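>> received
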Amino acid sequence: MKWLELLTVGGATLVAAVTVVVLYSLGVRLTAIAGDTGQASPRSMRLFANICFGLCGVAVLFGLYLIIPYFSG
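>> returned
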């Protein structure tokens, strides 16, 4: 068995999972900050939250693209 390849796939999976979770969590936090009534610029916070959610969705779609054989070749 090729252990280095197994570790590479495991590391890439861990990094991808952490990235998606952090982007989603940051989007939720920025949405909560934007909903605060004392916030000076809620529109910019909501914009950054939507960007985080969009990047999270792109990461998930890219993962599906890599997993589903019909799309990758």
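>> The CA atoms of residues 55 and 61 lie 10 Å apart.
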